[in-house]
Amino acid sequence: MDKYEIIDRISAFRTEKKMSARTLSLESDLSETYISRLEQGNSFLPSMEALLNIITLGLKITPEEFFYSDFRAYKKDKEIIDLLNVATLERKEAALTILKLK
After folding, report:
1. CA 16 from centre of chain
2. Could you give the domains of the chain?
3. Alpha-carbon span 60 to 19, nearest angstrom
4. Secondary structure letter of residue 54 according to DSSP
5. How far apart are alpha carbons 23 and 41 in whole angstroms?
6. CA-to-CA distance for 50 and 32, rounded, in angstroms?
7. Is-contact 95 84, C-beta < 8 A?
8. Neighbours of 16 (CB within 10 A)
9. Average pLDDT by consecutive 10-residue portion of the chain (102 residues)?
C-alpha cells in the first residue's frame, strides 16, 4: 500500500463517518494543520504512532479494517467469517456451495 492509498483511506473513512478534519484531529490528538497537510498529499506519511492514533482514536476502527484489501467490504466479509467460524461442517459445505454458484 503506497502513501496515496493510505491518505485516500483516511479521507474515505473520515467522509464515511461525516467527520471534519478538525474533529479527526481532536480525536486523534493531532493538529488540524497536520491532518489537512496529510490529506492534501504534501509528500509525507504519518509516523506509525500518528497513523495508529488516526485509525484507532480518530476513526475508531481497527488497523485490520483500515488495511483490509477491500476496506469497503470489510464489515460484510467479517460477518461472513464470524458466522463460518461457529458453523457446523454441514453449514460450511452449504455456504461453499452457494458461494460457488455463478
Report:
1. 11
2. 3-67 (1.10.260.40), 69-102 (no CATH)
3. 12
4. I
5. 19
6. 13
7. yes
8. 12
9. 89 94 95 89 83 97 94 92 94 92 80
- d(CA 67, CA 54) in angstroms, rounded, equals 13
> Which three three-digit cell numbers place residue 98?
452457494
* Sign, CA torsion 11/63/72/3: positive
Q: Taking a C-beta distance cutoff of 8 angstroms, is the pair 20, 28 a contact?
A: no
Sign of CA dihedral 44, 58, 52, 8: negative
Shortest CA distance to 25 belongs to which of 50, 49, 55, 58? 58
Sign of CA dihedral 8, 9, 10, 16: positive
